[in-house]
Amino acid sequence: MDNNTSDMTTLVQGWNSGPNTRGTMDIIWSSLLTIVLCTWTALCLNLPHPNDGSFEILRQRAKWIFWAIVAPELVLTVAMGQYASARRSVLRFRKFTAQQDSWTLRHGFYADMGGMLLQPRASTPFLVNARQLAYLVEKGYVEVPQITAGEIWDRSKTDALGRLLSLLQATWFLIELLGRAFLQLPTTTLELSTGAIVVCTMGTFLCWFHKPSDVQTGIILKTEATRADILIDAGDAAAVPYKHTPLDFIAKQSPTCGFEVMEFFNLRFDNRERPLRRFPNDRFPDIGTMEKFLPFCTTTTFASLHLIGWNFEFPSQTEKVL
Q1: Statement: residue 258 has pLDDT above 80
Q2: Looking at per-residue confidence, does 89 or 15 come out higher?
Q3: How many whole angstroms separate alpha carbon 282 and alpha carbon 255?
Q4: Cβ atoms of residues 97 and 107 within 8 Å
Q5: What's residue 163's pLDDT?
Q6: 302, pLDDT greater than 90
Q7: CA distances (Å), 314 to each of 23, 30, 156, 306, in order?
Q8: Are 191 and 27 in contact (CB under 8 A)?
Q9: Mean pLDDT confidence for 215-241
Q10: Of 23, 46, 111, 285, which residue is the least packed, with the fewest Cβ within 10 Å?
């Protein structure tokens, strides 16, 4: 009887810790999962073209996920420019509205991402951004859109749970990375690159925190004026042919990679339809000196994190050079 009891005591065990080692698949899986979660949930692209199907929408998102992995500082700079434009629109609309919540950052993002379609009388409709909409309101062509921030957010397909899981995974990954550095444990270059991407992507996430995600439809703003009426009333400023929309004269649009840059190589990657029915995502940001501080700090951190691996040991000299 005593022998049986002794045997049972030997067989029954409580919590068993896993081995204190990391396999190659553990490192790859943890890094890739963190990268995919962060880039997928952080991206907030502009409204698609009305004729774009599911494949085209997915292709655009896949392209920007690629850039978010290869050049996250580029995506961060674009996000910072969009945030700056939305913030300026809030200051601009304060003189038109008495209520502070009638035009918010969310409204500014929504307009700049192609959510406002102007329908002039007997004219072709075209998109207007926040700056152009402020001009139309000031001139009395349209009223301030009666859409609340909550209604805009209802059009968004942002998954709060997905963002929370991404934030938790990214935070845990950074804590683990810092812990290994503090304990002077070996770290792979893949983990270093992932940590750098996470830092940059968190800056993008903050800039796009109020921007709706995966919005498919916008709102239509009707005016009794024709497009010709608006342009004639603007005078000589509107005499120059437009490149994107008839209201280009209100504020000079910043250049895009697909139109202005690739034009030098006799290539065009943007939609050739004019006026535009989709605002491109690759527009270069228009930001001031103070607004450049956040991208500067984040991109500097992004580059510096890679330098940590300067003295890492590599199996061969070729791998070290690469």
Answers
A1: no
A2: 89
A3: 9
A4: no
A5: 79
A6: no
A7: 17, 21, 46, 15
A8: yes
A9: 88
A10: 23
Sign of the alpha-carbon torsion through 308, 311, 316, 322: positive
Q: What are the tokens at 189?
A: 């270059």
> 244-268 in b/e burial notation, b at 16+ Cβ within 10 A?
bbbbbbbeebeebebbeeeeeeeee
Q: What is the pLDDT of residues 46-59, one digit of tens each?
A: 998 888 888 888 98
Spatial neighbors of 264 by CB under 8 A, at least 6 apart, are none
Answer yes or no: are the C-beta atoms of 173 and 33 closer than 8 Å: no
The band of 106, judged by pLDDT with boundaries at 50, 70 and 90, is very high
Average pLDDT along the chain: 83
pLDDT at 264: 66
Write a three-state SS string for the chain: CHHHHHHHHHHCCCCCCCCCCCCHHHHHHHHHHHHHHHHHHHCCCCCCCCCCCHHHHHHHHHHHHHHHHHCHHHHHHHHHHHHHHHHHHHHHHCCCCCCHHHCCHHHHHHHHHHHEEEECCCCCCEECCHHHHHHHHHCCCCCCCCCCHHHHHHHCCCCHHHHHHHHHHHHHHHHHHHHHHHCCCCCCHHHHHHHHHHHHHHHHHHHCCCCCCCCCCCEEEECCCCHHHHHHHHHHHHCCCCCCCCCCCCCCCCCEHHHHHHHCCCCCCCCCCCCCCCCCCCECCCCCCHHHHHHHHHHHHHHHHHHHHHHCCCCCHHHHHC
Measured distance CA(92)–CA(120) in Å, rounded = 23
| Dihedral sign, Cα of residue 115, residue 116, residue 119, residue 120 | negative
Pair of tokens at residue 131: 């700056």
Instruction: Give the C-alpha separation, 222 to 262, whole Å.
Output: 35
Query: How many residues are listed for the chain in this entry?
Result: 322
pLDDT exceeds cutoff 70 at 269 = no
pLDDT per residue over 169-185, tens digit each? 888 888 888 888 888 88
